[in-house]
Amino acid sequence: MTPTVVLITGANRGIGKGLLELYLAKPNHTVIAANRNPDHPTSKALADLPTAEGTILRVIKIDATSAIDSVNAAKELTRQGIGHIDILIANAGIALSWPKVSQVTIEEIQKHVDTNAYGFIRLYQEPW
Predict the structure, then answer these.
(1) Which residues contact 83 (CB under 8 A, 6 or more apart)?
(2) Its Gene Ontology molecular function terms (predicted)?
(3) Is 7 helix (H, G, I), strand (E, B) or coil?
(4) Using CB atoms within 10 A as the burial measure, which of 9, 24, 47, 108 is most buried?
(5) Which domain holds residue 40?
């Protein structure tokens, strides 16, 4: 039986990690934890999570603010023998500041838009 392939962005903490744990508990899945820094201790700790029978974990770099990370991730996954994604969960996002509208800078807003809007678009445009 072919495993179900799931890719989750922002998978090293919070909601993304919770979703990751749920899919790792399902048998016969390939679960891809995507985050901006696979070498971070929170990313490395994912290898210690329990997995169901026939389920494997892969950790890959996708920074939502990068114009090329999704492309590079798709190429790397293809090299690893993963040619498609069945379930794509775009969970990565940021919420860095909460100022009043009169106090927020355009740069702060742009950083949020780059990550929380354009990041999803880049991810979904990749031909997984």
Answers:
(1) 77
(2) oxidoreductase activity
(3) strand
(4) 9
(5) 4-125
H/E/C letters for each residue in 21-78? Answer: HHHHCCCCEEEEEEECCCCCHHHHHHHHCCCCCCCEEEEEECCCCCCCHHHHHHHHHH
61 confidence band (pLDDT: 50, 70, 90):
very high
Residues across the chain:
128
SS3 109: helix
Using CA atoms, how far apart are residues 9 and 128, in angstroms rounded to an integer? 14
pTM score: 0.93
- Number of Cβ atoms within 10 Å of the Cβ of 59: 18
Q: Number of folded domains in the chain?
A: 1
Structure tokens at 68: 């090329």
Pick from 123, 124, 14: nearest CA to 64: 123
Which residues fall within 8 angstroms of residue 66, CB to CB, at 6 or more apart?
Answer: 122
The 8-class DSSP code of residue 115 comes to I
Q: What is the CATH number of the domain that holds 70?
A: 3.40.50.720
